[in-house]
Amino acid sequence: MFKQFFSRPEARWAVVSVFALSNTLNFLDRQILTSLAPQLKQEFGISNAGFGDLLMVFSLCYALAAPFAGLFLDRAGLARGSSLVVAFWSLAGIATGLVHSFAGLLLCRAALGVGEAGGIPGTGKASALYLAPRERAFGSAISQVGLTLGGIIAPVMAQWISLRYGWRWAFILAGALGFLWIPLWLAVSRAAPRPGESHGPRGSALRPLLTDSRFYAVLAANVLLMSVYSLWVNWTTVFLVSEHGMSQAEANYRLAWIPPIFATAGGFAGSWLTLRWSRAGQPVTPARMRVILAGSLLLLAGAAVPLMPSAASAIALVCLSFFACVMSSVNIYALPLDLFGPGRAGFAVAGLTSAYGLLQGVFSSAAGRIVDAHGFAPLCVGVAIAPMASWAVLHLALKRRPA
After folding, report:
1. N or C: which end of the chain has fewer CB within 10 A?
2. Are 179 and 282 within one domain?
3. CA 202 centroid distance within chain
């Protein structure tokens, strides 16, 4: 019966759903650290700057490993390659629960970054192999739901396990879940129709992309936009504890899990608005730019987060920031297909992933030091303004050379 179901054409959505589940595990393993940050900072004597360094090490390793992870998946094949990638990052997550020093935490976060660098390329490869081009946007939305679930589950799960069994078991049990995903994926991959796997374009075919100023404009725009996402995806629990006097448990149970829900809503809203405006007769790229501008304007409100009188009102603005950021982001990630065609879109999106990882690395380390010295106010103002610069960079690049 299992085999019969996966022989049907609609089984391709089961494959996409299995990879959305891997995204959930990917983000869960990543966010356990941020959910338990106040507790770990106290136990290991870590300052905000030191916590920023932990985030930096993960992000830089993630960014540097991403191109090689994609190459590995191409060479090993989706079934074997994704299984090994998930096993690697799951072991890194488990190892985090066994360390007894700050240096050990750094090493485990580096390993986790290397392993998780293969997560998004694997999901993208699955969508490219199993879905028709017209179906891939919806596949991306399903993948975003997986990431959101990881962001919602992490603070609640981490806090519940930590209170009952200690913080180490939160890392160990979250990592162990990856070893339940691997047999599920292998069973699905054997039963589902096997598509042919093709290699991406060679270096010579990529040369027009690498000499196109619009490619670098998209990279720069993504870095500027995602600075706000990088702030709140990593620092929400710390912000609630330090600025509003909440306990770690109260912050995680009551508020920290809410903003990721608005990220998914923003993703669907951004896709819907672009579709609506393009159906009304506007070319798709200008429609995307209108959505990006709308999101950037909404993000200006995030500058007021530190001024909010209560934790709930502050989180309301953080939720708006998540919504507006992802509303714009889904369109920035779709721009490579509009600008460079499907043959080069994969490499261009990989560039966006690496650029975001590098942003997280530089931003996280600097953010910790700014918080130690000046609090959250300068950061909130900076990341609220940066998305307008993101839109301006894209606007100028596309004005010089339209899509």
Report:
1. N
2. no
3. 27
Q: How far apart are CA 353 and CA 222, in angstroms?
A: 9
The conformation of residue 389, written as its DSSP 8-state character, comes to H
Q: Coil, strand, or helix at residue 212?
A: coil
Please state, in angstroms and rounded to a whole number, the distance separating the CA atoms of residues 112 and 89.
5
Which among 207, 224, 205, 229 is positioned nearest to 396, based on CA atoms? Answer: 224
321 shares its domain with 256: yes
Same domain, 245 and 96: no
Question: How many domains is the chain partitioned into structurally?
Answer: 2
Range of the domain at 394: 208-403
Q: What's the CATH number where 282 sits? A: 1.20.1250.20
Tokens at residue 238, please? Answer: 């710390």
* pLDDT tens digits along 22-31: 999 999 999 9
Q: What is the pLDDT of residues 112-128, one digit of tens each?
A: 999 998 888 788 778 77
Place of tokens 């089961």: 14
Q: What is the pTM of this model?
A: 0.78
Beta strands in 154-311 (DSSP E): none
**What length does the chain have?**
403
